[in-house]
Structure formats: C-alpha cells, structure tokens
Amino acid sequence: MNSEEEFYDAETGLESDDSCEVSFKDALVFDNKQVTDGGAAQENGVWERRKTLPAEMISRNNFSVWSILKKCIGMELSKIAMPVEFNEPLSFLQRISEYMEHTHLIHKACSLPDSIDRMQMVAAFAVSAVASQWERTGKPFNPLLGETYELTREDEGYRLISEQVSHHPPVSAFHAQSLKKDFEFHGSIYPKLKFWGKSVEADPKGIMTLELLKHKEAYTWSNPMCCVHNIILGKLWIEQYGTVEIVNHSTGDKCVLNFKPCGMFGKELHKVEGHILDKNKKKRRVIYGKWTECMYSVDAKVYESYKKSDKKSGGDTKKLKQEHSCEGEEADEMPDVQETVTVIPGSALLWRIMPRPAHSAQMYNFTSFAMTLNELEPGMERLLPATDCRLRPDIRAMENGDRDTSSTEKERLEEKQRDARKERSKDEEDWSTRWFELGTNPHTGAEDWLYTGGYFERSYIDSPNIY
C-alpha cells in the first residue's frame, strides 16, 4: 500500500426525512427542470446513458476500520493507506464534476435581468453542489498526479475539464464552460481531513468562481465544513455546517448562507438559512431550506413578519451560532428528525433535489448523474487522453465488482507513482501541469489554479500513460 495516499473527501451521508414532502401551493417556482426517476438522457438522439452500474457495490464487512484508523486520532489524514473497500468507483475528479448536476440553475441565473434574482439562483446552485454527498458512504479514489477527467454534456449545454495538479498537498483543479459562452465555472480544491476517534472532520479548502459572461458578473464562495459520523461503529451520516459567503464582485451584492449544525436534539439537521444583501447592505431576500431537499427564497420583510407571528420560532438561535466541531462529542447517534421544510407563504422555490434511482442503495448511493460519470461511450476510448480516469483499471475493476483486481491495481498504480516521483527527484525535475497553471484569481486576489485553454480544441492529445 502507498503510505502517502491521501484519505480525503471521505464525505458520506445519512438517513433523512422523506425528501420534498412539502406543500408547494404557496410557492412560486424558479426551478422548473423536469425531474425523472433515473430517466436517461439521449445525446444527438442516439446515445442513451446507463441507468445502473455493471455490478452492485462490493461488501465492506471483511476488514477492520479501527485497525487502520486507531493511530490517527487528531491527525490530518494525508498519509494514511486505505484499503479499496473505503472507496466508491469514481475518482475525486469525477466527484468534482457532480457540482454540475444542477447546471440548469446557472442557465436560469443567466436568463434573469435582476441581479438579486440572479444571486438567488447562484445561492441555490452553491447549495446543490453539496447535495450529492447525501448518503454517500464511500470516498472517491485519490487522483494520480496528472490524471484528468473530461465531461461534455451537450443536452445540458456545458463541458468540463479537470486535472490533478499537485500530489502533496493534493490539489484538484477544474474548469467548466457553457457551450453557448454564457458562463464559466472554475476552482481548485485542497480538502483537509482530521480523524477524531468517531468522526472525520473535513475542511474543503478552495474557492469556487462562477462567471456569468452575458452580465459581466463574477461570484465567488467556499463550500461548508462537514463532519462524517460513526466511522468505526454505527450508521454513517454527515452534517454540513458553517457560513458560506457568496460575493458578486461586479455589483457588490452578497449572500450569506448558514449551514446549521444539527444541534443537541437534531432540530437543525440539514437546514440552511441565509439572506441576500444589496450593495447598500439592505437585506432583500431570505434564503431557507435543506441541502438534502430544497431551497426557497422569500422577501425579507415577509420573512420577518412571519417569524414574529410564529409562536413556535426562536429559542435556540444563540446556541446554534456557537462554533461547531466533531471533536469531543459524547454521542454520534443520528438525530431522528421527522419534519421537512415549512414553506412560508409568498416563497419562491429555487431548487429541489433530484430523486435517486430505486436501486441507488445497492450502487454506492449514487445519483442518476453519478451513475453515468465513469461510463465509456462507444468510440470514446480512442478519443480520450491516456490520463482520463475512465481508463483507470482499479476504478474500472471496482465498478465491475472485482475487489481483488481493484486492490491489486490500486497498489500497482501507487507504486508506479512513487517510482515516477523518485525519478523526477533524482533528475531534479519538477512536475509540469498540462491544462492549468498556478496564478492569481482576478476577482479575489488569492492564489488559484487557472485553466490555460486548448483542451477541447485539440484533435488528439499525446499524453503519458500514468496507468
């Protein structure tokens, strides 16, 4: 096993109340995307994407998690060798592409003339980006240095390229663009995890940048913290918490979202609440909902009036503002929460989570979108660069239910990567990235990995065989 393998993005999920069992009679609808249960899309009227994986998920009952993690309490999990049973059959680069599952929210934002309305949709998109983590109990495979992933969805109007640009620390960069040149969405991610005995706490380092080109606007934000509970015993579940601040650098509008920790009695489990301020710092809209279900927007004055008249509101708000950490918890039992989102009259529905396939639990709790990410379409293999993670033999073997081959190939690739690093060190050579370069984000002034262009314009890529 590679002693330097990063155990990161080990984000998982939990049981929730029944998604979207709310009344929409008092709500306007911004999110009018057609929802189907595992329905397949067709590309150019010919290709129908798969609705399932080739095999059910491999068993995780034949190894001891505690024997691996007991020496890691309080440590950053950056150099811990993990067995393949911890994984799901996707690379972290493919996991990043799941941000794009709700791209229709960006398209909707592009179509709206008012900047506050656009901010609402951007906020909904930022929440939707973490929704796929719900109930996901496996970590993605760590990308090899130089690994890439290409995703083109003509039916959704975008294409994406991602690359593993650093191994220590592990950094993944991505860039998505509209096929009609309406938007660009990009960022680089350096997730840091710590193990606290029963839980893993994840700090998702990195800035997301969304540019709406037609409106000449740029939005930036960071993803919330998360805590994965019951790593050793019990049912895995996750909570997201922390403040996400979305800034429109062109207009001065700002959206502040509070991903609430579940609290002592689980009353705040999954809840997200925040507000939009215009450039004059006037509160214009209140955003509320659950990151596992749906998000709504309502006029700030209507919200305040509703809260004053609601005798059941208030009580624990001050306690919820305390800093939350996975460390030192006495119990990790998942709260038993029955209620769903209460819709305030006059609210607008911004986003609703897509229902998962009926067989999702046997397929690593994948969404319909995730089911398609490692699929090789006819003729694709000869068009992809050799660095594309669809060609990774360990991921492919796991997807096919072959645990032994997956484990063997994973070890071989890790050893190959170590040998390549030793050779570069011997020759005093630095690794050169192919599609991204380290630079400065023009909107935040912070260091960022920026796409250099050219990937989608090429007819063929002569790339190293890292597998």
UniProtKB/TrEMBL annotation:
Record organism: Scomber scombrus
Bias-annotated ranges (Basic and acidic residues): 308-327, 394-427
Region (Disordered): 308-335, 394-432
Stated family: Belongs to the OSBP family.
Entry's Gene Ontology BP terms: lipid transport
GO MF assignments: cholesterol binding
Lineage: Eukaryota, Metazoa, Chordata, Craniata, Vertebrata
Xref: InterPro entries: OSBP_sf, Oxysterol-bd, Oxysterol-bd_CS
Protein name per the record: Oxysterol-binding protein
Keyword vocabulary terms for this entry: Lipid transport, Lipid-binding, Transport
Cellular compartments per GO CC: cytosol; perinuclear endoplasmic reticulum; plasma membrane
